[in-house]
What we know:
Layout: H1 2-21, H2 35-44, H3 76-85, H4 91-101, H5 111-132, H6 134-138
Helix pairs in contact: 4-5
Amino acid sequence: MILFAGIRAAQEELGKRVDRRGLNARSEEPVAVDLQRFTLSLKTAWQVGEKRPTHRRPYRRTKPYPKRPSMLEPFEPQVRAWLEADPAVSAASVLERLMSADPSRFTKKSLRTVQMAVKAWRIETAGQIILDGDWMKRAPLSSPAAAGEDNGLSAPNFGNIPG
């Protein structure tokens, strides 16, 4: 901010001098600029949010990315059923099942695609569980230890949430 104030003051002074040139006004002494202070402020000007003269606007893509249909699209309901039946199933085993279902479409090279899809489906499912609040409905309201009972069973542990 100090740098901008100094630049604006210099521009204003230059404008006044240009305006007075036509009036044959007496010449004023030039404003003394402390060069050392100015150069030191250049080192830290960016920290207060000032942009450097080399700043460029970030590139923004104006055209939409081309969208191709996913190779997993026809098998999505089946994969979701596998993941619902066994949430801990790995993407490699999902790929093996897909390779046995359609060997012409899926190969070992498809592993990364299947991994990304399985990850996306798991994130979506986790978001639904958290936002729906269904996990709270299934949790017991009080633990047996809190009720004074000691039947050897312990309450589920939800991390740092007291049970």
